[in-house]
């Protein structure tokens, strides 16, 4: 039952799966931060059209299962509407997985950022304006430094959830860890290695998520605002 | 909002108002252009043809596929919610125990299940028993396995046949949802009890209550009020995650509406996705409304001095990010 032989026989394949997971997570982390920041700026903008767009986007994406979002990207937009990034199917599916995951995570990033901005008391902004700071100055020196600190811990949670969510890309034909695991488990001959495979994959994900959590926890503690 | 000052923007004067108007027009044009480009693409690929959309006006599509799928989604979510709450309360309180031999194993279980993806847990329940049960059946635990499956797990449809255990997709989905969301809820329970001011427990001890009484009569009733919004928003996450059953072919809403409808009706993938998405959004938004209402209600009540945990953002708290960090921030719990 605890025969790790089959696990190490397929170790190359599993590592390849984890490498695919890391590539997806890294690209989605960057893109979702950019998209989320843009969305958050829409949601706090003084222009109603942008605010409405931001609200509608966040509410739709937050209430749709990620599985559906990724399937719509790969099957709907890529296959049916033929909006392809590349003619190579693995490349275009990768980028659609990145875009789908980022689009979904961006809704959560946006909400964390917006909540962070809202933790800054109005008096801080009023004081900044009354001493004559311009909009960019008060944003750069007063508001964003405080908002950023309040955002670190929730953003950490969002990113850890995102790393775990990369497994859902298995539904959208992207060969990451979960799909590798499923392919191996689908083989009838792969029996005694099943439990070690689970343990190996679980440990692999803990190696990815736990340090991320400790990093954000450390960053939060370092940057906490005394108020 | 645009009339008064916010943290970011001062109340606009005449020049700022004019600028905002220009920006609003530009933004509208850009957004409409993007939407138009997408709709043009739809038209180019013939996605507006009636035969692609009309299946969703037929009663048999709803009666045979979508409604049973929605039923299965809600069934899995309901069973998993109840068990996850139970799991959460047991492990959340176990983590607060005074005995290290209860506290530490409970913490290990909760942190383990919180740090690995839900899909991997569903795979564990779906594939692994089938693979390893024959070798267990031959070992000394064979009888124990048969008794456990026959007497307890059969409730969830788990079957044992000549030593091979078969787990149905429903049970696998429920197992994953319970373990993952139960662990998250355990953290919510722990944070909820810890958020009650220390004086409450001290006062309860000083009037002679024991540990059991302090927890049951003083801390938990207040903690429930505090936790309610966070619990409901985690249940929305649970409901959404039932869609992962798609990957192991559990016939829930996504499987029925998105996988089974298109091949039978002119391959209307996009249309099916839109309809299924709207159903998910409607269900989840009504549950979220409930969370908002509960939050407003518990904020009004003055039964507890503790701050209500927000139920706004659905991401679970991170392992490693301390509870104090979470409680002090915006309430992602």
From TrEMBL, chain A:
Top-level taxon of origin: Bacteria
Membrane topology note: Multi-pass membrane protein
Main location: membrane
Transmembrane segments annotated in the record for this chain: 20-42, 63-81, 93-110, 150-175, 195-219
One matching Pfam family: BPD_transp_1
Gene3D superfamilies hit by this protein: MetI-like
Keyword field contains ATP-binding: no
InterPro entries assigned to the protein according to its UniProt record, in alphabetical order: AA_ABC_transptr_permease_3TM (IPR010065), ArtM/GltK/GlnP/TcyL/YhdX-like (IPR043429), MetI-like (IPR000515), MetI-like_sf (IPR035906)
Keyword set, alphabetical order: Amino-acid transport, Cell membrane, Membrane, Transmembrane, Transmembrane helix, Transport
Subcellular location: Cell membrane
Domain (ABC transmembrane type-1): residue spans on this chain: 18-216
PANTHER family reported in the protein's UniProt record: AMINO-ACID ABC TRANSPORTER PERMEASE PROTEIN YHDX-RELATED (PTHR30614:SF37), MEMBRANE COMPONENT OF AMINO ACID ABC TRANSPORTER (PTHR30614)
Entries under NCBIfam families matching the protein: HEQRo_perm_3TM
Family: Belongs to the binding-protein-dependent transport system permease family. HisMQ subfamily.
Protein name: Amino acid ABC transporter permease
Provenance organism: Actinomadura fibrosa
TrEMBL record, chain B:
Protein's cellular compartments: Cell membrane
Source taxon at top rank: Bacteria
The keyword Transmembrane helix appears for this protein: yes
Membrane-spanning residues: 21-42, 74-94, 106-128, 160-180, 217-237, 269-294
Gene3D superfamilies (UniProt xref): MetI-like
Principal cellular location given in the protein's record: membrane
Record membrane topology: Multi-pass membrane protein
Keyword annotations from UniProtKB, A to Z: Cell membrane, Membrane, Transmembrane, Transmembrane helix, Transport
Residue span, ABC transmembrane type-1 domain: 70-291
Annotated PROSITE patterns: ABC_TM1
Family per similarity comment: Belongs to the binding-protein-dependent transport system permease family.
Protein name per its UniProtKB record: Amino acid ABC transporter permease
